[in-house]
Every structure is written in C-alpha cells, then in structure tokens.
Model the fold of this input.
Amino acid sequence: MDITFKDVSYTYQPGTPFQGLGLEHVSLTIESGSYTAIIGHTGSGKSTLLQHLNALLKPTAGVVQIGDREITPETNNKNLKAIRQKVGMVFQFPESQLFEATVQKDIAFGPQNFGVPEAEAMARAIHMVELVGLPADVLEKSPFDLSGGQMRRVAIAGVLAMQPEVLVLDEPTAGLDPVGRREMMALFTRLHEEQGMTIVMVTHQMDDVANYANHVIVLENGQLAKSGTPREIFADPAWLTAKHLGLPTTTQFAQALIQKGFVFDQVPLTEHELAAMLQAQLPSKVGERRE
Amino acid sequence: MPGDSILHRMDPRAKLVASFYYIGIIFLARSWPAYAVLFVFTMSLVLISKIKLDFFIKGVRPLLWLILFTVLLQIFFTRGGHIYWQWGFLTLTRYGLLNGAYIFMRFVLIIFMSTLLTLTTPPLSLADAIESLLKPLKAIRFPVYEVALMLSIALRFVPTLMDETTKIMNAQRARGVDFGEGGLFKQMKAIVPILIPLFVSSFNRADDLATAMEARGYQGGEGRSKYRILKWQTMDSLAMVAMAILTVILIVLR
Done:
C-alpha cells in the first residue's frame, strides 16, 4: 500500500495567535514494502507528517493518498477506521498507552476495535508476545508490573496484533539500553523481510538509518529538504551538518580515513561494507609503506 | 494571552482585587445611565488591553444558555409596570423587560471583566497574587504556602495534562477507538483507555516532581525567596482610585 503526499500543508490552530506551521508543500511517496527513515532535527515536522499517515491529522491543503483512500481537508472524520487498521502507528514512548488489566487483554484491544472476535484477538496476543520476544508468562500479568522495556514491547505487540500493512514508528528505541535497542531493530527488520511489512520510522540514530533503511526523507522547517537512498543522503556530509544532522559512525570513520589518503568510490553504510572496502585497499597500502 | 498593554503590566494583585471589586459594584447599578457608564468603562479597558473583541465574545458563548434562561425567567416572571402581553401565568411587563435587559448586561460585563483578567494575567502570576493576598490568613493558621504551591502546580500542569491527553487519545485512536461516536455507553467505555493511562502518568509525574523538589532542597514555603517579585506601582494605585470613583458615580446614578 503506497502512501503519497501531494503538495500537503498543515497549519496548527489556523486563525488564532497561536497559529503555527507544521508542514509546507510536502510532496513525497512512501512505497509499499519500503523501509523508510524520516530524519530532521526537533521541530522539523516529523511527528506532524507521521500523524498524516493514518489520518489522525488531515492536511489543511493538498491531498494524502493512503492506498486507495484520498484524504483531503474536506474528508469526513468518520470511516477512517480501515486506514487505521492498515497503517499501524507506534507513538513515542508507546508504553503510556497501556491500560488493560492484563497484557493479553491490552494486546487484544486493538484487533477487537477492528471487529476481530475476542477469541481470535486473544489468540493473536499469545502469538504477538512471542513475536516481540517476551516470555509467555507475561500474558496474565498487569502491564504496569513490567519493566519499561517490556512495556514498550507490549505496546508494539498491541499495534502488530492489528495486522497492519504499514508500521509507523516514532523513535521506537528512545530510552532503551543498547541490547534492547538492537533487539528492537532486529524485530523490525524481521517484520520487513519476512512479512514484507512497510516500515516508516522517525529516528535520530543515523547508524540505524544506514543499517536498515532503504529510503530516507529529510525534513527541515516543515519542508521536504531531500529524499533518496541512504547512500545518496549520506554522500554529502557538509550538507547534513548544515541541517544539524549527523553521520553514521561508519561514514564518519570513512571520512576520517579519506583525510589519511584512503579512497572510497561510494560511502560505506554498514560495518560490513566498510570492512570490505578497506580490505580492498589495505594490502597495497601496507605494501607501499614497507617498500 | 501575550501582550504588552498597561493592563498586562499591572500588578496581578491589583488586577485581581479590582476585578472582584468591579464584579461586586456591578450589582449597584439599577438604571440605564449606570449601566451605560459600566459599559463604556469595560469597553475602554478592552480597548486598552489591545486584545481582539472576538476572544471576549468567545468567553460569553459557553454561558449563553444560562444567560438566556435567566433573562427569560426575569422577563416573564417579574410583575409590575405596564403589561404588554399575557398568557396564563406568563406576563410580559415593563419591569420584566427592564430587569431582563439589566441581567443580560450584568452577565456580559462580568464575563468580559473576568475574561480580561485571565487574558492579561499569566496563571502563575495569579497564583502569586492569591498567595500574597492570603498571607494575612496565616495568623489563623491557614496553610497559605501549601495552598499557593498546590495552586501553582495545578496550573503548571494543565497544559502538560492536555498534551498528554491528546497524545494518549491519538494513540488509542490509532488502535481503532472512536471518540464521540456511538451511544452513551459506548462513549463512556471509550474514556477508560484515556483515563487509566492519564492517572498512571499523573501519579508517576507527581512522584518525580516530589523527588526533584526534595533533591533541590525544598522544605516548605517559610523563609523561601521569590523568583517573580510582585511590585505595586503608581498605575495600580490609580486603578484602585478609579474603582473608588466608579463606585461613587454608580451610587449617584442608581
């Protein structure tokens, strides 16, 4: 299910002294099956853009096409449920949305809202707990008795149980420890690769962008600054720095090496790529020095 | 509402006292000339505040039904004077109409004045003003500092709670909850997934706040210095004088 923005603008509280611009003439496409990363510094309009993906916000101008539904400023607020089921959204710190008495009931809450019978929703919950890597005995526990990291997994399981085609994540690894972060990112990769789920992720971790994404959207002041593959985006370090954005560790490392006389045909993104590119250059270098 | 008029810069204590006093003396007025004076006075304050009239009219809107109900009661149930129209127990008399109009004016003036107070004064300054005005009550062991602290914390967390509510509502909406749809029972049920997370996060926040305050050495209000210091200026004394003059005019015109 493709999601296309056609000249979308969004203004907060129009016509009051508190009026603020959220998005300005944004046109972009998030293709079905892509792993899209949205980057940009605080206040660049990332969260506003995300909320358009499942019609929580309607554009104040322009059109958002979600699958075969068109969302325009005139769209009625009713009958948007089908979109919300297909586009699962995990907000920042999603653990704050848990409320049910048990983990299983909380995970089953979403599917039941979309008309899935209780028995099936409960069965999905059992499966989802396993999918997000939690022990089966949490099912009967209160979500408030779990640790922060576990609560977040439960919240994500609750969204996955809706069986969305697109999974939207707003900084899903914020505040997690390194192991938790790696496991979380591995989960999203699995969903992307094994189930062909479209992933849209807002992140400040450039390493995650380089390692996992195949499409990057850069926002600045509510406008689309650039979009392309990670390689295209990270090829211009000066431009990124000017936008207050960093580089992935590998690219930074490569930059330092270029100063020392190494040559890279293209920017290395993952550690593997960097290692391979270095291996190709090192023996000759070492050889030269020996002579 | 941000702004930089004389009213914005006045001492919040003066504004608080003057507004309440003004609402009190509105009830002195019982004649058209008196209401005309009050109307002109209120409107000039609105002008001085440089805030658009729309905001004041918006303040009247939520109370519209109450106002209409009260005015209609006055119109139809006040006896005396020339009778224009009669139907069963309902009578439309001269006094009835007059009283209805007075009541309407009173409502509008009171709402305008209180809107003016809240629009020109940041909530925290109001809390400071209340604390300062309540200070004499310490003599009868009234917990002034505690009440003031509770008030400022409550005010401070109103926007935070509103943000939190929007966030949680969005999260539940994304999980397929419809707010404002379906029957009463269904709508009530839809509130549970908002209320429970809000309670949990409020308790957590209160806990964090208490820890943070203790970590920074808070131990009650006694002897604590202030960041925002209230200053009584000439302007504030003048406002009090204006109120006194207005009282005299109203007594003469009533």
Remarks:
- Residues 32-54+77-234 of chain A form a domain with the Rossmann fold fold (CATH 3.40.50.300).
- Chain A touches chain B through 24 residues (CB under 8 Å).
- The mean pLDDT of chain A is 89.
